[in-house]
Fold this protein.
Amino acid sequence: MKILVINGPNLNMLGTREPEIYGTTTLEDINNSLVEFSKTISDDIELSFFQSNFEGEIVEAIQKAKGNFDGIIINPAAYTHTSIAIADAIAAVDIKAVEVHLSNVQARDDFRKISYSAPNCIGVIQGFKTDSYKLALLGLYGCLK
Ligand code: DQA
């Protein structure tokens, strides 16, 4: 089972970025611990990782996933709240996707309460910091197996 994990803008700065909101774990550490966690679910899970600060690159990564990946875990970061293009890309490829947020966006600024991508995902996990990614993988695996 091939899963693509996509992270959007500013998530490359995790570790030092607003640690009171996002914690102190780097994206590399999140990715490494997700690989370790995946082995506790199944040895059939193969994870690939992509991060970009550019909307179009994220759209292209989603498009290229068609035929190459069984599922997508995506933290669109700020594009969650603005990007119809990313939402459309998820719908276009017809790959099961889970939206992830480190923080509970419903408990933050009003503009963060809107997600364009969530309706095109099978579920949303938010508020559990780095564990959000693990819970997303667990849920996605359950839907795909
Ligand atoms: C985020 C929440 C977004 O509102 C924010 O723009 C981010 C990170 C999260 O993981 O909590 O960059 O997606």
Q: What stands out?
A: The pocket of DQA is lined by residues 10, 75, 77-78, 80, 101-103, 105, 112 (CB under 6 Å). The CA atoms of residues 4 and 65 lie 8 Å apart.
